[in-house]
Structure formats: C-alpha cells, structure tokens
Design goal:
The complex is a heterodimer.
Chain A lengths: L2 E7 L3 H16 L3 E10 L8 H32 L3 E9 L1 H11 L2 E7 L5 H17 L4 E4 L1
Chain B lengths: L1 H6 L1 H19 L2 H19 L10 H16 L3 H4 L1 H9 L13 H12 L2 H14 L2 H26 L2 E2 L5 E2 L2 H12 L4 H36 L4 H16 L4 H28 L4 H14 L6 H17 L5 H6 L7 H8 L1 H20 L30 H9 L5 H32 L3 H20 L3 H42 L8
Helix pairs in contact in B: 2-12, 2-21, 3-22, 4-9, 4-15, 4-22, 6-17, 7-17, 7-18, 7-20, 8-15, 8-18, 8-19, 9-10, 9-14, 9-15, 9-17, 9-18, 9-22, 10-11, 10-22, 11-12, 11-20, 11-21, 11-22, 12-13, 12-20, 12-21, 13-18, 13-20, 14-15, 18-19, 20-21
The chains are: A alpha/beta, B mainly alpha.
Chain lengths: 145, 517
C-alpha cells in the first residue's frame, strides 16, 4: 500500500529541511508518495476596497503562479530527480487548517512541516500555524527543527 | 504606479495644489457661484425632489418605496425566505474550498456596506426623528425591510451581466445589465439607459459620494478644533484619497477598511449598552415608536410627517434601488449570481433596520426630544418645523448629545467615526464613479487616471466651499440614478425570477449543498 506524506513548504530553509526528512522517511518505505503543499495565508473575513475586490481574481492567479513556480515546482522536480514519486499543490486559506484539509482529502498518512522560521514574515505565518497544526491536525504531524 | 512614474508625482499633484489655492480664492465668489449653479441645476433638483401633488412627499422616495414593494411581492418575500440562507452564504458554508482566495461573500458585503454606512445612519436618522418623531423609526424600519428586495434584484443582475476581462479583472453594475440585459430580452433603449445611468453615477460620485462627505468631515473636524478654512481639510483628504486611488497605497485603504467596521461595531455596541442601561424604558420607547407611527404624537405633519421622514431616511441611507451596490457586488466570482443577491439583501437590514434603529432608540430613550407633560405629545420648536430638543440640537449634534448623555467622551469617538465613514464612503464612490466613467469612455490607465484626479480635485472643492446648490444637485444625481435603475429593474426582474426558481429548486433537491470546511 502506498503511503502518502504531505510536506508543508514555506519557501525557506526550514521547508527544505522538512523535504530532506520526508525523503529520508520515504526511502525507508516500500511505496511512498510525497505531496508538496504550499498554503498562501488568506482569510475570507478580511476587509477590502472595491478596487481590490475587482482585481482579486487576477491577483489570486498571480499568487498561485508565483508559489507554484518559485516553491512547489522546484521542490517537486528535485524529488522526482531523486527518484521519488512527488506532486505539488497550492491553496489559499488558513495555513494550519488548509494543510490538514489537504492531508485528509488526499489520504495523507502524516504531515511534515518545518519549525517556526527565524525570519519575521515567515515566522508570523508559519510560527503560530505550526502550533495550530500540531494541536488540531487529524493526522500525525512531524515538526522539523 | 506606471503613470505615477511617467508623469511624476508633482505633476499629478499640481492640479490639487492649484485647486486648493483656487478654492480659497473661490470662497469669496461663493455667492456668485451658488447663484449661477442654482439657476442652472435648480429645475433638475426641483424635479427630482418634487413632492407628489397635494402632499409634501417627494415622488422619488415614493418611486423607491413602490419599487421595493413590487420586488417584495414579485419575489414572494425573498428577504424573509432567504434571510437565513444569506447568513449561511456570508459565513462561507456554501463556498467551495477550491475557490479560496477569491473575493468572498463576506468581503463583498463588507465593501458594499462601507459605501452606505455613514452620515445617513448618524445625522440622517436624527433629522428624521427630530422632524417626524419616534414614529418615523417604524416607517424607516419598514422601508428598510422592503428595500432588501430591491438590493437583491439589482445585485443579482450586477453579477449576472458583468464583464469579465482577459486579465482576470471584472466590471459590473447597472450600466452593464441595462445594455446586456435589454439586448438579451430584445428590448431597445438599454444602451441609452446605461449612458444616462453612468452620467448620473459620475455626478453622484463627485457630489454625494465625495463633496458632501468632504464637507461634512470638515464640519466635524472644525467642530472640535474650531473654525478654519475648509480647503485645508480638503487638501489633506485629497492627498490621502489620491495616495489610495492613484498611488495604489493599499495600506491606508486597508487600515480604513478595518477601522470602519470596528467603528460601526463600536457604535452599535455603545448604543446597546445605553439601551441596557435604560432597559426599563425600552418598552416605553417602542410604545412611542408604534404610537407615533400611526398618530404622529403631535409632530409636525402628524402621521404622514412621520411616514415621510421614515421612508425618506431609509431610502437615502441604504441606497436600495440606486444601483451603487450592484457595482460593488459584481466583483464576486461566483458560479451563482443569485447568491450575491441573497448576500446583498442583508445590507439594508444592517444599515437601516439595525444601525439606524439603534440611533433612533438612543435618541428616544435618552429623552432628547422634549415631551409636553400635560398632553404627552412632543413639543414643537419655535418655528414649528421640528420637535424641540434639549439644547436645541439637531442632526449629528442631536445624535452626539444623545450618546454623550450616557458617555461624555463618546462625541469625540463619534466625530472620528464620522470622519472615517466619510473617507470610506469616498473610496467606495470613487470606484463606483470610475466604473461609470470607464463604461462611457473605455478602460485604460490614462482615462482612469483622469477620473481619479478629477475626483481628488472635487474633494478639495467639497470641503472648501459651502456650495449648497452643488450638493443639492449631487444628491439629486444619486437619486436620478435610482430613476433610471429602477426603470430597468422592472424590465429585467423576470431574469432574476428565473435565477431564483432554478436556484431554489437545486437547493431543495440537494444539488446545491454546504461544503465541509
């Protein structure tokens, strides 16, 4: 049976360490599929101007494109080159909640994420998100330091 | 930003600075300008606000109330039947998680509300209750409830007939459903109506959505700091508006868009606290509202006076039928246009039924309106035109005094709220005006920049000069939008009914269902 592992990426070094750990784990399993997930922090309950609303779809597409080309695709390519079965996914939403949903919807056996990054912005997004994920996830979570 | 670098910031700001100086100079010419402008626009203003023969009831208010009643009947009380569903939509229960990142129903609702919640809810209600008595509140609530059906109709059409461009941006609103909807039905005149609507929308945006707001914001600031030239306020506002709508400085808009709802919530919560503090009088207050609605309780014009004031305030406050909300809501990327209609029907409820009613209740309960102890009726002021109030307050100062009687610091918060509401209304109307402008002149950075600079210039003029006739004209232009819009809605409402029937059936069958989040 193929085991699916979800790797939460944040485009930083800690995300890279999460990939390395996932590779190590996958190598020990007979059949393993790695799913690289990048969640763009977004809430449907923020306040926007009419102009922002009108261009929102365009910006959403740009955000997905940027995350895919800069973070997810390179990670997936590197994993494939190393002989792993890998795919990628980019979603908007609450990071912890969405990573859990991705894992549940895709039959993920566990989620691997990097510990809170030292950088301000990433820390803001992934710091508390990692905590939330550990607290509320429906599947086991491994946090890489 | 591309054009900013092309022309240079100073180059684009120059008209604003020139206008500020000109505005100062123009103050001396106020009388001449007022007179000339009044001569030119007077007939149009008089026509829009003309009373129905034999009454003092403006026909435009009747036009909006009749339309709201027609839509309420035609859609079989849609506002009651789908109220719970609208809340579910706003909560995101029916939002596909795969669409996360698009404009949510909540965001569209909040954006549209920031364009309507403002001075009307604070100053306008005080005027209505001050003239029409507590009974005006009853008619205001009724008109607000009926107006929910108008919003539902126009916002559904706004999404259904919007333009989606290759770059992913959208443009929508009455001008689009007029031209595309009439064409689809094989009816002539859609293009003409759209052009007429766009012209009124631009005038309304520059006037009621801009000059009036700048003017009132200046009045508020001057009320706290003492009198000073309005062009200074105008220039500061114009620079901020300029930075947001031309410079793309999103941070200011984001801060405003966050602070304004906070102010709205703070306003309602404070009103609730005052009501709780006077809980024993709530029953009496509602008694006054119901008694006043049908007897007038001695106010000028009696029951009819209360009715006129209540209907007028609701129509002026929530803009149901005006068409502005249809522009705001059309940005939502939904597979079901009617869902945006459901969400939009919450607007008149929040704006009028909740916020306006809170204002009215606080004014009544804090007993700002003087009652004759002998008759139990309200006493009129010396001129006999309105109810006598404690300290002779009226308008925003009446609301301020009512809240201030419970919390002495609240007038300062209220002043800040009025200024922020004015600013957010300006940002919203700059967009509505821009959409009408691009409908007439086409999309493109240069054309859009031209409108935005004109908009900023009008901020300075609005705050600097006391151009009463200009503001009258601007208000008339906003309601002229409603004349054209409602006329078109009567022809297009069957399209909305088709959508409603289809959606209702699919909702009932379970084809449309909630998503697990």
């Amino acid at each position: 049976m193929t085991v699916k592992i979800v790797i939460g990426l944040d485009g930083t070094e800690t995300g890279g360490r999460a990939i390395e750990f996932a590779k190590d784990l996958a190598a020990r399993l007979d059949a393993c599929e790695l799913l690289c997930a990048y969640v763009i922090e977004w809430s449907p309950f923020t306040f926007q101007t009419p102009e922002e609303n009108a261009t929102r779809h365009k910006r959403r597409e740009e955000e997905i494109e940027t995350a895919t080309s800069r973070v997810v695709d390179p990670a997936v390519s590197a994993l494939k080159e190393a002989g792993f079965t890998a795919s990628g996914i980019v979603r908007h939403g609450d990071v912890a909640e969405t990573l859990n949903t991705i894992a549940v919807n895709n039959g993920g056996a566990q989620i691997i994420v990097g510990r809170a990054s030292e950088h301000g912005f990433t820390k803001r997004i992934f710091g508390s998100s990692t905590q939330n994920l550990v607290m509320h996830a429906d599947v086991p979570v491994t946090v890489i330091g | 930003m591309k054009y900013l670098s092309k022309f240079g910031l100073a180059g684009v700001m120059l008209p604003l600075l020139t206008t500020a100086a000109a505005a100062q100079e123009a103050m001396g010419l106020d009388e001449k300008i007022n007179q000339k402008f009044a001569e030119l626009t007077g007939p149009f203003v008089s026509f829009i606000f003309a009373p129905i023969p034999g009454t003092s009831f403006p026909w435009i208010v009747m036009w909006l109330v009749v339309a709201a009643s027609v839509f309420t009947i035609y859609f079989a009380l849609v506002q009651a039947r789908f109220f719970g569903h609208a809340i579910s939509l706003v909560k995101g229960d029916y939002s596909d998680p795969n669409d996360a990142g698009e404009v949510s129903h909540f965001q569209a609702l909040a954006t549209a509300l920031s364009g309507t919640v403002g001075l009307g809810n604070i100053a306008g209600v005080a005027v209505a209750v001050g003239i029409g008595g507590p009974g005006a509140t009853f008619w205001m609530i009724l008109a607000g409830l009926l107006g929910m059906a108008s919003k539902f109709t126009e916002c559904t059409l706004g999404v259904k007939y919007r333009n989606e461009y290759e770059d992913g941006t959208v443009s929508g609103g009455p001008m689009y459903y007029m031209s595309k909807g009439f064409k689809e039905l094989g009816l002539p005149g859609g293009g003409f109506l759209a052009i007429l609507f766009s012209i009124f929308c631009i005038l309304g945006a520059l006037g009621g959505g801009n000059m009036f707001q700048a003017n009132q914001a200046h009045q508020q600031i001057a009320g706290i700091t003492g009198d000073y030239p309005g062009w200074i306020t105008g220039l500061v506002f114009a620079i901020i508006v300029f930075l947001v709508i031309v410079g793309g400085l999103k941070s200011i808009a984001r801060v405003t868009e966050k602070v304004v709802p906070f102010m709205g919530v703070l306003y309602v919560l404070t009103a609730l606290v005052i009501l709780i503090m006077n809980a024993d009088m709530i029953g009496w207050a509602f008694g006054q509202i119901f008694a006043g609605a049908f007897t007038g309780l001695g106010v000028a014009g009696g029951m009819v006076g209360a009715l006129i004031q209540g209907f007028k305030r609701a129509a002026f406050s929530n803009e149901a039928g005006v068409g502005s909300a249809a522009i705001a809501h059309s940005a939502v990327r939904t597979k079901e246009p009617i869902t945006e209609g459901f969400v939009s029907l919450l607007e008149p409820f929040i704006d009028t039924v909740v916020i306006c009613t809170m204002t009215a209740l606080v004014i009544i309960i804090t007993q700002q309106l003087i009652i004759d102890p002998e008759t139990g009726n309200y006493m009129l002021n010396e001129a006999g035109t309105a109810i006598a109030t404690v300290d002779g307050n009226s308008g925003v100062s009446l609301t301020s005094a009512a809240f201030g009687s419970a919390f002495s610091f609240f007038p300062y918060i209220l002043a800040v709220a009025v200024i922020l509401f004015a600013f957010s209304t300006m940002i919203s109307w700059s967009y509505y005006g821009l959409k009408a402008w691009t409908y007439l002149f086409g999309e493109g950075h240069a054309k859009e920049l031209a409108f935005k600079v004109i908009f900023c210039i009008f901020v300075v003029i609005g705050a600097a000069a006391n151009l009463g006739p200009v503001i009258d004209f601007s208000d008339a232009a906003i309601f002229a939008m409603a004349v054209v819009n409602v006329f078109a809605l009567y022809f297009l409402m069957k399209k909305v009914r088709e959508e409603l029937a289809s959606y209702s059936a699919r909702l009932k069958s379970g084809e449309i269902r909630k998503f697990e989040h």
